[in-house]
Amino acid sequence: MSTPAPFGRMLTAMVTPFNKDGSIDWNGVETIADHLVKTGHDGIVVNGTTGEAPTTKSSEKEEIIKVVKRTVGSSIKVVSGAGDNETDYSINQAKRSEAAGADGILVVTPYYNKPPQAGIKAHFLAMANATGLPMMLYDIPGRTGVEIESDTIVELFEHPSIVALKDAKGNVAATSWVIKRCGIPVYSGDDILNLPLLSVGAVGFVSVCGHTVGSDLKAMLNAWFEGNSARALELHQKLLPVFTGTFRTQGAIMTKAALTLMGLPGGHTRLPLVDATDAQIAQLREDLRAGGVAI
Fold first, then answer.
1. The predicted structure's pLDDT at residue 3
2. Low pLDDT (below 50) residues in the chain
3. Taking a C-beta distance cutoff of 8 angstroms, is the pair 238, 216 a contact?
4. Which of 85, 131, 244, 276 is the most buried (most CB within 10 A)?
5. For residues 90 and 61, is the Cβ–Cβ distance under 8 A?
6. Per the residue annotation, which of 61, 121, 166, 218 is the catalytic one?
7. Does the annotation mark 89 as catalytic?
8. Which of 85, 87, 69 is nearest to 77 (CA)?
9. What CATH number does domain 8-227 carry, 3.40.50.300, 3.40.47.10, 3.30.450.20, 3.20.20.70?
10. Which spans of this chain does the record mark as coiled coil (predicted)?
11. 3-state class of 248 per DSSP?
């Protein structure tokens, strides 16, 4: 692999398991982090969308980093989401993440206020200058309302602390051109596009489905980088029902339900998310079994 993978190849954006009363299930945090390590992960992303970061306090985010770091050990990268739609607040989150022991930060495009590209660039540069941590940009216009345009990504990659891009743009052509232009290490942020993005030069995944099929996703990565594209395609096609089922509604909702079906402490959600219904769980069970998950 010519392009380095600064955080390893296989990462999953981890859920935050909540008790019924809304408190964090700290034993559950440890159990899920350990499960991810045992299924082949090189790193774990905490305090992201799947971790329901918009509903957790800064103090909770810090403690999540500490608990996961303590659980997984020094060989597993722990990357913490630190992005918000207000730059000073985001910088504060980044500094607190660094103090808590994170190995890197994931910074999403400022959302809702839809800044122009000049504002997006200034935001990311301010974040990159705020700590000594390596930073992964996160491009997900379906959630933020605005993309990081290709020229902006290329320019931002000139900063030494900006080392990777989590790509959930859903535009493989645009991502292909960005990789060709500047060589930024790209992580797929959309499970169903994992293999297509590998084919244009991505270095790995920041998955959601890694909670349930992490071993298969790691096998897909290994097959691809060993030159066995046929095996990688076979695994991709096997996992299509899981990719689809996990996102029939919001990903954290279904992932928590899936973990519970697997006998793991997925826990509950915090409003405005709501737990999966019985009908949604029944469909999810079918999707997971169709993808080879033993439940």
1. 84
2. 1
3. yes
4. 276
5. no
6. 166
7. no
8. 69
9. 3.20.20.70
10. none
11. coil
